[in-house]
Amino acid sequence: MVSRENKVITLCIVLAILLLGVVLTVSDPPTWVSGMVILGVGVIAPMLVNEYLDRRDMDN
Questions:
Q1: How high is the pLDDT of residue 8?
Q2: Measured between alpha carbons, how far is 44 from 38 in angstroms, rounded to an integer?
Q3: Which of 9, 33, 40, 51 could join 46 via S-S bond, C-beta 3.0 to 4.6 A?
Q4: pTM score, two decimals?
């Protein structure tokens, strides 16, 4: 059985890769932009989403 956290992380990583592909296709950004997309969407976003969902579950 796949946990909710793993589903959120997987979804965010897929979104980060897709977003990175779009950014690189549409424009020619500096190198740091690629890192920020991966870090922001692939690492930080799932942590924030999971924290929010954990707190929401604890309140119920």
A1: 97
A2: 9
A3: 9
A4: 0.86
